[in-house]
Amino acid sequence: MVWPCFRSQGWGGSGAWRRRKEGLGGAVPRRGPCCSQEAAMDAAINQAGDSEAAAQLSDAELVARVIDPRRRSRDSEARARLCLESCGGLGPALALADPRLERQIGAEACLQLRLVREASIRTTRGAVISRRFDANAKRTHDYLRALLEFETRESFRVIFLDASGAWSSDEELGRGTVDHAPVYVREVMREALRRDAAALVLVHNHPSGDPTPSAADVQVTSEIAAAASALGMSVKDHLVVGSHGVASFQALGLLS
């Protein structure tokens, strides 16, 4: 049974705890120093504007508070460490949607992690949507890396730009294996026409971590660019996302 950390004056007056009929028999354990330290840290984190307290948490302590915010379990930090070790770090833990992880830390804990990741993605997306596209901007890289950096399978996406060059929307149009994602030129063009796009930016990830474009990447980019040109559109760039960075076809001179 997990004992809550109630203040000594909370239940019983005069500092005494009354035993309840639910059966809290036996001696009530005192708050240990660890519990007191955790409570003090939680209080500091809850103070408005106190980001330094949260920054002092280790990855395991941070994950433990995410997966067990009410601190109902004594082993939440141990489960957090197991999660980080199994996934290979904080980023992969947030991105991983694997039944094996659910078996290790529980479905509710996995849901909490996925919600944190979704919040991160939406926050970074808010910094790019409706703004003029800039392949080299930090906000662009932040969003695409939050979305794709720790994915274990290749995902092919298209960013649709309006006539002013602003980021109108983006959509995943293909998801595949660890080293391949299906890309259908007709589907890309259909979506571009449906969204009344003036230009496109292609995006995909390399789960290996190395963002260097492959020969196949160059080939499919050329095919999409030719189809877009025939319909009065253009491909402004193709960005490849990996844990080692983001590669730009435009910067590498790979767009004809």
CATH topology group of the domain at 151-252: Cytidine Deaminase, domain 2
Global mean pLDDT: 81
Please give the CATH class of the domain at 151-252: Alpha Beta
Widest sheet: strand order? 2-1-3-4-5
Shape: elongated
CATH superfamily of the domain at 151-252: Cytidine Deaminase, domain 2
Distance between the termini: 67 Å
Write a structural description.
Helix content is 45%, strand content 14%. It has a five-stranded mixed sheet with strand order 2-1-3-4-5, sandwiched between helices. The N and C termini lie far apart (67 Å). The N terminus is likely disordered. The chain is elongated. Among the domains are: 66 residues; 102 residues, Cytidine Deaminase, domain 2 (3-Layer(aba) Sandwich). The relative contact order is 0.08. By secondary structure, it is α+β, with helices and mostly antiparallel strands. GO terms for molecular function: metal ion binding; metallopeptidase activity. It comes from Phenylobacterium zucineum (strain HLK1).
In short:
InterPro entries: MPN (IPR037518), RadC_JAB (IPR025657), UPF0758 (IPR001405), UPF0758_CS (IPR020891). The protein contains 11 helices and 5 strands, in the order H-H-H-H-H-H-H-H-E-E-H-E-H-E-E-H.
